[in-house]
Amino acid sequence: MKVKLLYSSAILGFGLMALASFSGGATSGAGDRTGSPLSSGTCEGCHSSPGSFSPNIVVGITDASNVPVTNNTYTPGATYTIRMSVSALPVASIPPLVAQYGAQLTALDGSNAMAGSFTNPSTGATGAGFGSKISILNGVTYLEHSQRSTDGIFNVTWTAPASGTGDVTIYAAGLAINNNSSTSGDNYVNTTVTLSESTSTSVEKVAHPVLDYSIYPNPVQDNRFFIDGINGDANIAIRDITGRVVYQVNTNIQQAQAVDLPQLPKGVYTVSIFQDNKLGSQKMILQ
Prior knowledge:
By secondary structure, this protein is mainly beta. It is built from one helix and 17 strands.
């Protein structure tokens, strides 16, 4: 009985140690793992691979009006939201093997110094989740996980650097783990996004052409509605009456596209869709 108890305690202790190591974030002893010129290695230095997953990583940027940045430029001093999404398909098994996620992201100028500043770390599609943090290592700021994520979405507010900084490169690393209480059999993925400094001196808000579409049924029931009149890639944002984004997704819209919402309180919302530099907004009632 004592032998079994000691063995069980050892297994539990190892699992908790692995979890604590993962939750600590990459700069907690591991250094930069984003793939930037400052990197001390990749996530594979702590998480052995190949693993079971083939993860994807997408970095999206929206401006203060929640309009996606599609021209890969930034306005000095402006505020943006950077969203990093890591995803991996479940592996067929009984039961299916489902990934959990970690992340690290930074923004560097041409001299490999921190470009701008990070605030308001969050997780989830609505930006209301916990489980991410901001860390500083050798004067460079990082967004990274503070606990495992189940949806792989990490957000941070980025204030762009001052005029004259030039190009800024965002370096991001995502991790898909198999939740086996160790660091074996996991997979990582890296990406970069380079933004050029805008040379425009105008501070006026850009007026986008109107995007025409229809949503139905409206009022919406069962958290599902359809979009008609649009085809192709688009960004969909749902805002509550305060203007806060409660749901956002980049998707390829087909005719009579269904949109499944998360569980949201009943009330009045605004559906904004941005496509091909056109922006449309419509009121939606959720019952």
